[in-house]
């Protein structure tokens, strides 16, 4: 049995074992957050190295080959291994609480999803030590990635295949959780926006990741077993890779940005002390963005030569996405309009997000203008554009939400003053780095260049851009420091830390017990906690059931074992083209471990356990003192 | 009155944008200083779209800043409880319809331009004598260099594209190894060179390059293609039509030109033994060479696309190409050359020229 209070008394080994085997969504949320932060730091460092290299013309801080590895790993890591897990962290930590559930629908799969992601990510990063990282860009366009010597691309293909399976599994889990695990009264149109965006994002994952899986599989058999899907000399076609990659890759942008929208839709109403404006149109816009997100992939390929008709269609469909996105922006502004705005750190991030994201959005429309995109494509303009969307949208959401949800996740608060320092350093640094890159692109600088010749009119702007990157790094360092001192700070032991919480997660006292809700809540309207609070209900929720035994899932080490099996098998596949004798046996051993763990899982009945009423009462008293969660 | 005011605002915004943007960049590389009809059309689209977008940003920022300043809790009192508004259908309709109208306004020139810039029908037109009426250049992108073939003229060159001004020049684009992308920022947008198909488009060069600071426009590879992607530059020399005809004639006159291994010139002899297998010194021929055609080397602006055009650079390049362009395919192809041979071969290559 594990609760936060009990865990405190455990030794290090027991705690480690607990985290290796846990199926608790709150702990997995923390693990996603930590793993995501680790990879965010690594990818951030890679970005910093690139900006130092580009600070001066003809600089030789890193070599050309290393630079290509850095740019590839920066993009791949940030999107797949930093932004995705950080957002999954918040989804895990918050969504079950928002919908009044005791865990996700498949706790075992939740753990499996994490370990697949994590071991896939570790596998990819081992490439740095085993002969060189992938160097064909995060898009890994087929002609270059087939040409690329060494094992870098193999690490990319296998690592992403494993971690992508984890993401897909987690996506399915959230769809089922949100559809089936909502508390009584939590109808679809009462779900908080973050839950809505998680649902739509999970649906996007469900449809977007299979094309990537297929593309990676083609690449895998091309590189490792000599198939010819992409080898044009033998009848393959590299344009197929571009299509498959972007059919995944464009929805991936929305997979990341929709939860960010959801997080801001939670933060803004709390600190404006006002109901989210136009809730139903926000939901509608989310669904529409998700749908249109699949209709626009070829705008990444305007210069590939698809012909004017394809370009025209994709130009118009891309412009159409601006409409629902614009609806959201106006709804956020109208939410703060007439509200009572308190500028805390999370709100600061939300307020910084609106103009930054709008700037990223309008440059997106400019690039949808296909003939104009012929100039902007693959120049620094596009680099500026997608960083405005990703940093200005997603990273600001992640940082803001760290401050916002820290009390629920860790029962600690992050320091507000340090938070403001982080914000200003990061925010100013971000605009300094990327605003100027629009002009570098317009002035003719292509992207993904490891150096540039002096006196082409780019020297000063590149220098300024690098200064901005250093400021962003300082901001992140302050955030890390903030996180470290928060671990030493006093536990909060309170409910509704920000004072104006609206959705169900704020009705819970922290630390949240491992079963979340001792009685399942009854949801009587949108913003249930706000509703109960303003009707004078001190417990913060109405219950849908009497106090009774709670059924909870058992911990299991099998997800970790299954993931390790695939991790091992990947090494066999990786070295297969080298003709080493042990490659096939290692593939077989690895797959045997995975399949063996699956068989054990299938044959062994694991029915979970019951927490009895006396234990619930005891746990509550231990956590909150006499009287429990009142 | 209001209408006039709005128009005035729009135009002043456009004027400010134009001034601001045109101050940026060098005229041989910047998309903001186009020297061709295609680039000008794209710049006009940029200005048009940026104006619409700037309007959007200004409206949003104004609303947002106003709300932010006016509705601070510090102004409203700690206990102020705002009215909990659900939404407004009227507002929803307004901010759905206005963006749609703005996008439609932008979509019209977008679609017209998309079809216009893709129109390459004139490529196949012939005059009464059966000669093609438009100039076509076949571009082949290879790992870190560019080959330009003029099929109608029967000539081929590399690294420096030579074209006449004032007419549409049509391009067949292809990559020989991995995907690249052909981009001359100050002339017009880019087009990818794919490995499995030929892409076609046109550009128009309206200004002679001799007035430029470097005497050439700069061209770039815009698709990541390996370690030396950043160094895969080419140059564009634009000539008045008569001068272009002269250039073609002098290129054609190099037919049969070859370096002799028996030459008394050490440079030519070394070239014949070590270099000629890949590098032709006659401008007559077709694309498909192993290495760049060097017939016009002496007329060029850069060594290996990026180094200054002088003998020292050329010696540096021949001595160790890998130190200049990592991942290039020339390294190790021609055996060891002595310092004396390198110096002589550099002299010989620098002497190759078709211009006076």
From TrEMBL, chain A:
The keyword Transmembrane helix applies. SUPFAM superfamilies: Cytochrome c oxidase subunit I-like. It is found in: Cell membrane; Membrane. The chain crosses the membrane at residues 30-50, 70-91, 112-133, 153-181, 193-220, 240-264, 276-298, 310-334, 346-366, 386-406, 418-440, 460-485, 557-575, 581-600. Its EC number is 7.1.1.9. Pathway: Energy metabolism; oxidative phosphorylation. Keywords: Cell membrane, Copper, Electron transport, Heme, Iron, Membrane, Metal-binding, Respiratory chain, Translocase, Transmembrane, Transmembrane helix, Transport. It is a multi-pass membrane protein. Cytochrome c oxidase is the component of the respiratory chain that catalyzes the reduction of oxygen to water. Subunits 1-3 form the functional core of the enzyme complex. CO I is the catalytic subunit of the enzyme. Electrons originating in cytochrome c are transferred via the copper A center of subunit 2 and heme A of subunit 1 to the bimetallic center formed by heme A3 and copper B. This is Cytochrome c oxidase subunit 1. It comes from Ureibacillus galli.
Automatic annotation (TrEMBL), chain B:
It is a multi-pass membrane protein. It is found in: Cell membrane; Membrane. It comes from the Bacteria. It catalyses: 4 Fe(II)-[cytochrome c] + O2 + 8 H(+)(in) = 4 Fe(III)-[cytochrome c] + 2 H2O + 4 H(+)(out). Binds a copper A center. Keywords: Copper, Electron transport, Heme, Iron, Membrane, Metal-binding, Respiratory chain, Translocase, Transmembrane, Transmembrane helix, Transport. Its cofactor is Cu cation. The keyword rRNA-binding does not apply. SUPFAM superfamilies: Cupredoxins, Cytochrome c, Cytochrome c oxidase subunit II-like, transmembrane region. Its EC number is 7.1.1.9. Its main location: membrane. Gene3D superfamilies: 1.10.287.90, Cupredoxins - blue copper proteins (2.60.40.420). Residues 262-353 form the Cytochrome c domain. The chain crosses the membrane at residues 45-69, 90-112. Residues 132-250 form the Cytochrome oxidase subunit II copper A binding domain. Residues 23-121 form the Cytochrome oxidase subunit II transmembrane region profile domain. Belongs to the cytochrome c oxidase subunit 2 family. NCBIfam families: CoxB. Subunits I and II form the functional core of the enzyme complex. Electrons originating in cytochrome c are transferred via heme a and Cu(A) to the binuclear center formed by heme a3 and Cu(B). PANTHER family: CYTOCHROME C OXIDASE SUBUNIT 2, CYTOCHROME C OXIDASE, SUBUNIT II. This is Cytochrome c oxidase subunit 2. It comes from Ureibacillus galli. The lineage of its organism: Bacteria, Bacillati, Bacillota, Bacilli, Bacillales.
């Amino acid at each position: 049995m594990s609760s936060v209070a009990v865990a405190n008394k455990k030794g290090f080994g027991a705690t480690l074992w607990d985290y290796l085997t846990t199926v608790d969504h709150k702990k997995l949320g923390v693990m996603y957050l930590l793993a995501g932060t680790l990879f965010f730091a690594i990818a951030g460092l890679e970005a910093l190295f690139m900006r130092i290299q580009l600070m001066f013309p003809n600089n030789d801080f890193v070599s050309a080959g290393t630079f290509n590895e850095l740019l590839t790993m920066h993009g791949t890591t940030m999107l797949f291994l930093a932004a995705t897990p950080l957002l999954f962290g918040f989804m895990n930590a918050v969504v079950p609480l928002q919908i009044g559930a005791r865990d996700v629908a498949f706790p075992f799969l939740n753990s499996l999803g994490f370990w697949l992601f994590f071991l896939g990510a570790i596998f990819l990063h081992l490439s740095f030590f085993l002969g060189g990282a992938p160097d064909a860009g995060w898009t890994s366009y087929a002609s270059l990635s087939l040409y690329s010597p060494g094992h870098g691309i193999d690490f990319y293909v296998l690592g992403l295949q494993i971690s992508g399976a984890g993401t897909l599994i987690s996506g399915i889990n959230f769809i089922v959780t949100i559809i089936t695990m909502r508390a009584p009264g939590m109808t679809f149109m009462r779900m908080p926006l973050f839950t809505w965006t998680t649902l739509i994002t999970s649906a996007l994952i469900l449809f977007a990741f299979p094309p990537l899986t297929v593309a990676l599989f083609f690449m895998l058999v091309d590189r490792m077993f000599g198939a010819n899907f992409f080898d044009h000399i033998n009848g393959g076609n590299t344009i197929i890779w571009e299509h498959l990659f972007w059919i995944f890759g464009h929805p991936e942008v929305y997979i990341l940005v929709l939860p960010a929208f959801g997080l801001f839709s939670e933060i803004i109403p709390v600190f404006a002390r006002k109901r989210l404006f136009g809730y139903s149109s926000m939901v509608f816009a989310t669904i529409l963005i998700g749908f249109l997100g699949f209709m626009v992939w070829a705008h990444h390929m305007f210069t590939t030569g698809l012909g004017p008709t394809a370009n025209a269609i994709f130009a118009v469909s891309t412009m159409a996405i601006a409409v629902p996105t614009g609806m959201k922006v106006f709804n956020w502004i109208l939410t703060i309009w007439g509200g009572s705005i308190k500028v805390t750190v999370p709100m600061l991030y939300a307020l910084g997000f609106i103009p930054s994201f709008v700037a990223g959005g309008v440059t997106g429309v400019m690039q949808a203008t296909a003939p104009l995109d012929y100039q902007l494509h693959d120049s620094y303009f596009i680099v500026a554009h997608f960083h405005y969307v990703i940093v200005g949208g997603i990273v600001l959401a992640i940082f803001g939400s760290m401050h916002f949800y820290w009390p629920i996740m860790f029962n600690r608060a992050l320091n507000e003053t340090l938070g403001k320092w982080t914000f200003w350093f990061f925010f100013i640094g971000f605009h300094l780095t990327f605003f100027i890159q629009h002009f570098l692109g317009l002035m003719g600088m292509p992207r993904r260049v490891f150096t540039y010749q002096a006196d082409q009119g780019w020297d000063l702007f590149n220098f300024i851009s690098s200064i901005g990157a250093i400021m962003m790094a300082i901001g992140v360092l302050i955030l890390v420091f903030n996180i470290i001192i928060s671990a030493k700070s006093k536990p909060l032991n309170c409910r509704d830390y920000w004072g104006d919480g609206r959705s169900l997660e704020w009705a819970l006292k922290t630390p949240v017990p491992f079963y979340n809700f001792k009685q399942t809540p009854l949801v009587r309207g949108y913003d249930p906690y706000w509703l109960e609070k303003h009707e004078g209900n001190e417990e913060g929720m109405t219950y849908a059931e009497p106090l009774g035994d709670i059924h909870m899932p058992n911990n299991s080490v099998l997800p970790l074992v299954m993931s390790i099996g695939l991790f091992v098998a990947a090494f066999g596949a990786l070295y297969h083209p080298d003709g080493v004798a042990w490659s096939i046996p290692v593939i077989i051993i690895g797959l045997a471990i995975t399949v063996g763990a699956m068989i054990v899982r299938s044959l062994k009945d694991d029915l979970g356990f019951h927490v009895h009423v006396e234990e619930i009462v005891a746990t509550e008293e231990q956590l909150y003192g006499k009287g429990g969660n009142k | 009155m209001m209408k006039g005011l709005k128009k005035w605002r729009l135009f002043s915004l456009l004027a400010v944008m134009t001034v601001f943007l045109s101050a940026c960049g060098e005229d041989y590389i910047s998309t903001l200083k186009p020297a061709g009809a295609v680039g000008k059309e794209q710049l006009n689209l940029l200005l048009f779209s940026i104006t619409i977008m700037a309007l959007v940003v200004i409206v949003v920022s104004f609303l947002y800043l106003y709300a932010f300043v006016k509705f601070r809790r510090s102004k409203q009192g700690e206990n102020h409880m705002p009215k909990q508004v659900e939404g407004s259908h009227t507002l929803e309709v307004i901010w759905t319809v206005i963006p749609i109208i703005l996008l439609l306004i932008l979509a019209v020139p977008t679609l017209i331009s998309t079809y216009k810039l893709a129109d390459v029908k004139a490529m196949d037109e012939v005059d009464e004598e059966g000669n093609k009426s438009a100039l076509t250049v076949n571009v082949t992108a290879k790992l870190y260099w560019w080959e330009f073939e003029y099929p109608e003229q029967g000539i081929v060159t590399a690294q420096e594209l030579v074209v006449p001004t004032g007419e549409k020049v049509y391009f067949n684009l292809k990559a020989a190894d991995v995907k690249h992308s052909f981009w001359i920022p100050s002339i017009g947008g880019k087009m990818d060179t794919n490995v499995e198909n030929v892409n076609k488009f046109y550009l128009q060069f309206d200004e002679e390059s001799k007035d430029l600071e470097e005497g050439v426009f700069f061209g770039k590879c815009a698709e990541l293609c390996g370690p030396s992607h950043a160094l895969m530059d080419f140059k564009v020399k634009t000539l008045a039509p008569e001068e272009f005809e002269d250039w073609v004639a002098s290129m054609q006159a190099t037919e049969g030109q070859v370096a002799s291994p028996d030459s008394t010139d050490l440079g030519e002899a070394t070239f014949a033994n070590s270099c000629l297998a890949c590098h032709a010194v006659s401008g007559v021929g077709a694309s498909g060479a192993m290495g760049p055609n060097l017939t016009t080397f002496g007329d060029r602006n850069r060594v290996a696309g990026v180094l200054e055009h002088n003998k020292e650079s050329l010696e540096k390049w021949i001595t160790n190409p890998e130190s200049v362009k990592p991942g290039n395919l020339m390294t190790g192809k021609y055996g060891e050359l002595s310092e004396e041979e390198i110096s002589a071969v550099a002299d010989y290559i620098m002497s190759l020229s078709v211009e006076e």
